[in-house]
Design the sequence.
C-alpha cells in the first residue's frame, strides 16, 4: 500500500499565540515525511486571519481559512477537514511543535487499511521550566498532554487525543465530523472530549476500525504559567466531567466511560499510593500529588453529575456535523 498524503490542520484563535503559531507551522514544514499541505483555520478573528494570510501568501503549502462554522475548536477542525486534500488529516495544537518524524510515524500506521486513526504522545513544556511538584502525571490531560495510564508503544485504543492525532479521510465519510457544542470555544470554560465522542461514533459506524496510539509520534506542548496553578486544574477537571456527561448521553455510559473506569479504579489509586509513599519518604510534592488526584476525581465527578442533570433537562446539546453538511446529533 502506498504512503498516504497527509494534510495537517492547525486551528488558531488569538494573536497572543503568534510566535507559537509560527513555530507550529515551521515544525510541520521541516518534517522528514513532508506534509501535503498545512491548513491554518482561524476561529472568528478577522485581524488574525488577515495577518496570517499576509504571512503565508507566498508559501504554497500553507493555506489560511476562516472557520466556516460556529465559534469553537470542533467547527474549526471540520472546516480544515472539508478544505483538505490529503488521504489522511492530522491535527496539531497551535501552541505545540512536532518532532521531525511525527508524520512519518503517523503514516506508517496506515499501512493496515483497517486503521482509521493514529494518535501520538504529547509532552508538556512547563512555562516555569519544570513540572509543579504537586502536579500528578496522571492528570497531564488537564494541560492537553499524554498522561500516566495511557499504554506505551504502538497500541490499540478507544480514542486518540485531539491535539496530536490523525484520521483517515474515510473515517469522516463514515462517521461525520467533530461534534460542535462539546469542545473548546476560545477562552471560555475549557471543555473537551470531542475527539472521544468522534472516535466512539467512528467505531460504531465501522466496527472493523482500528484506532492506534504510536508514542514515537511526539509533539511538545506549551503549558502557560496560568495553567500551572491549582485553580486551573480544578476548573479543567470540572469541565471534563461536564463534557463526559455529554459524551455518555450521546454514546451510552458503557462506551462513554469504558476507559475512565479503568483509569479511576487502577491508575489513580496507584498514583495516590505513590504520592503518599513519597510524602513518607520526605520527597517534594508527594502529599500534594496525592491530594490533587483526590480533588481532581471529586471535582470531575461533580461536573459529571451537573452535566448529566443538564443533559436530561435538555439544557446541554450538541450537533454532529457531516463535512459536506449538517445533521442533528
Sequence:
Amino acid at each position: 500500500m502506498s504512503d498516504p498524503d497527509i494534510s495537517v490542520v492547525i486551528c488558531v484563535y488569538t494573536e497572543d499565540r503568534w510566535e507559537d503559531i509560527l513555530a507550529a507551522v515551521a515544525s510541520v514544514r521541516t518534517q522528514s515525511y513532508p506534509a501535503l499541505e498545512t491548513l491554518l483555520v482561524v476561529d472568528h478573528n478577522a485581524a488574525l486571519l488577515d495577518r496570517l494570510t499576509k504571512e503565508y501568501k507566498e508559501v504554497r503549502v500553507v493555506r489560511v481559512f476562516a472557520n466556516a462554522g460556529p465559534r469553537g475548536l470542533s467547527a474549526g477542525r471540520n472546516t480544515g477537514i472539508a478544505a483538505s486534500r490529503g488521504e489522511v488529516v492530522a491535527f496539531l495544537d497551535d501552541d505545540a511543535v512536532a518532532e521531525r518524524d511525527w508524520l512519518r510515524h503517523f503514516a506508517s500506521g496506515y499501512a493496515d487499511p483497517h486503521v482509521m486513526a493514529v494518535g501520538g504522545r504529547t509532552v508538556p513544556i512547563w512555562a516555569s521550566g519544570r513540572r509543579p511538584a504537586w502536579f500528578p502525571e496522571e492528570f497531564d490531560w488537564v494541560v492537553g498532554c499524554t498522561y500516566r495510564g495511557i499504554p506505551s508503544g504502538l497500541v490499540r485504543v478507544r480514542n486518540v487525543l485531539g491535539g496530536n492525532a490523525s484520521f483517515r479521510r474515510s473515517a469522516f465519510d463514515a462517521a461525520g465530523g467533530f461534534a460542535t457544542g462539546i469542545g473548546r470555544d476560545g477562552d471560555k470554560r475549557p471543555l473537551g472530549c470531542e475527539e472521544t465522542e468522534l472516535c466512539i461514533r467512528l467505531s460504531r459506524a465501522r466496527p472493523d476500525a482500528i484506532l492506534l496510539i504510536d508514542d514515537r509520534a511526539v509533539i511538545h506542548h506549551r503549558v502557560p504559567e496560568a495553567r500551572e496553578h491549582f485553580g486551573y486544574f480544578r476548573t479543567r477537571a470540572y469541565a471534563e466531567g461536564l463534557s463526559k456527561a455529554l459524551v455518555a448521553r450521546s454514546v451510552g455510559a458503557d462506551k462513554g466511560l469504558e476507559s475512565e473506569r479503568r483509569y479511576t479504579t487502577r491508575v489513580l489509586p496507584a498514583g495516590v499510593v505513590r504520592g503518599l509513599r513519597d510524602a513518607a519518604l520526605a520527597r517534594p510534592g508527594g502529599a500534594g500529588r496525592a491530594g490533587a488526584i483526590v480533588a481532581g476525581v471529586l471535582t470531575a465527578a461533580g461536573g459529571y453529575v451537573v452535566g448529566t442533570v443538564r443533559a436530561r433537562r435538555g439544557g446541554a446539546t450538541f450537533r454532529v456535523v457531516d463535512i459536506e453538511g449538517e445533521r442533528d446529533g
The first strand starts at residue 6 and ends at 12.
